[in-house]
Amino acid sequence: MISNRLLETAVDHFGQRGFEGASTREIARESGTAMSSITYHFGGKEGLYLATAEHIAAQVRERAGPILDQVDATEVKDRATATELLLTVLDGFAGLMLSPETERWSRFIIREQQCPTEAFERLYEGVMRRVADTLIRLLGIARPDFDDRQIRGTAVGLFGQAMVLRAGRAAICRVLGRKDLDAESAQLLRASLRANALAILSETPR
Amino acid sequence: MISNRLLETAVDHFGQRGFEGASTREIARESGTAMSSITYHFGGKEGLYLATAEHIAAQVRERAGPILDQVDATEVKDRATATELLLTVLDGFAGLMLSPETERWSRFIIREQQCPTEAFERLYEGVMRRVADTLIRLLGIARPDFDDRQIRGTAVGLFGQAMVLRAGRAAICRVLGRKDLDAESAQLLRASLRANALAILSETPR
DNA sequence: GTCTATACTACGATAGAC
DNA sequence: GTCTATCGTAGTATAGAC
User: Fold this and answer.
1) Which nucleotide is nearest to B25 (CA to C1')?
2) Which distant-in-sequence residues (6+ apart) come within 8 Å of A202 by Cβ?
3) B130 touches strand C (CB under 7 A)
4) Which of A69, A88, A182, B7 has its Cα between 20 and 30 A from that of A188?
């Protein structure tokens, strides 16, 4: 399917060079087709861009869905269960941030976070909202002493610790003294995230 | 000074549209000069890009310097002092991430983290390395039970909680149900970050 | 130092053959 | 559906006037 090849190539080009920097000619050439195919399939450059956002959302959904389904299927009544599930979700998210295939997606997503367009809407509604809702629901049970605002503020911090694994990747490599994140570094970062999250979640209400 | 106006305009254009997406013509026009001024002052588009990175590093250094100087001037011997200083540095960093003026810089920096070029080198050596070193030094005192790797892994998490305030801004606004981060939201996020960090730092060694 | 003028390349959109 | 050809616009670099 040529339209799928175009989308895959577009993920890389838009992610690395941005909307204005990417060239439809180049995307088409690298996909082994003519530029006018983009017009035919997506109506133009902007249509391809929006379709790329939805393509990414669908792939992230596919990867994150099972674990979220598992959480939704579990009846969570006590702090311990909520904490354990929350750690699982966070670790799954960290694993996603550390897996090589998400590098291409995250470049696109992080770009959209800085200068949101209609594409961010598709990303958020397509997958991010569900992740956020799950985090917030579990956090409300794990920290019954928090009001809704505190829950959301804390969720941002937990989320940030996983997101930085992609958003701050270049700096992390420097700090760890590695050229890339090898398996040992990945394990260290996941363990640290788990320990940090556990400390945050199990803090005794004052 | 026309070269300074060019740099200021370049921060916005490169940050919002990326290296390839930005136009030297437009940058020059918005700076009130001719495009060939860029050639004269910076040798071309790429020279302007690298100079922009150094310009940003210098401005961040100016903002973060005083607080780092204060830490370096303090003799830190016990966990309590290290913890308090660490919380101060983190809150200062969060304040920076929340202040409007850093929006322009952070777009550029986050872009460089995704696809690092020579410009990232200038950013890291220009300001990031010193922040990281300070965080790691304090963390080593606040958590004497950690080895060097654990310190660095934990520092990434602490850093991430502040960085997400910029890198994940669009998503945070959704989660908090705001169009922008108002003063009340900013205060909430800083308080949550402080509470999270405190939980992480004061965890009893097992 | 800053400008105008120009050379050359690449862009996105579109029309029309097949 | 996919291609080629072409149009108008905009990109960077550079030479040379002032």
Assistant:
1) D11
2) A83
3) no
4) A69
Q: Which two tokens stand for residue A135?
A: 């985090």
pLDDT digits (tens, 9 = 90+) for B76-126: 999 999 999 999 999 999 999 999 999 999 999 999 999 999 999 999 999
Interface touch A164/B153, C-beta < 8 Å: no
In the block, tokens 């001024």 appear at B37
Q: Does B110 touch chain A if contact means CB atoms closer than 8 Å?
A: yes
Spatial contact of A139 and A158, defined as CB atoms under 8 Å apart: yes
Most distant pair of Cα atoms in chain A: their distance? 64
* Nearest CB to A200 within list B18, B21, B196: B196
Which candidate from A15, A124, A150 shows the least CB-CB separation from B171?
Answer: A124
Residues in chain B: 206
pLDDT tens-digit profile of A128-176? 999 999 999 999 999 999 999 999 999 999 999 999 999 999 999 999 9
DSSP state of B87: H
- With vertex at residue B105, the alpha carbon angle to CA B103 and CA B111, rounded to the nearest 5 degrees, is 100
What's A43's DSSP letter?
S
- In chain B, which residues have their Cβ closer than 8 Å to the Cβ of A19? 17, 21
> What CA dihedral angle connects A123, A127, A130 and A134, to 10 degrees?
-110
A53 touches strand C (CB under 7 A): no
Q: State the pTM of this model.
A: 0.96
The CA–C1' separation of B107 and C9, in angstroms, is 29
SS3 category, B167: helix
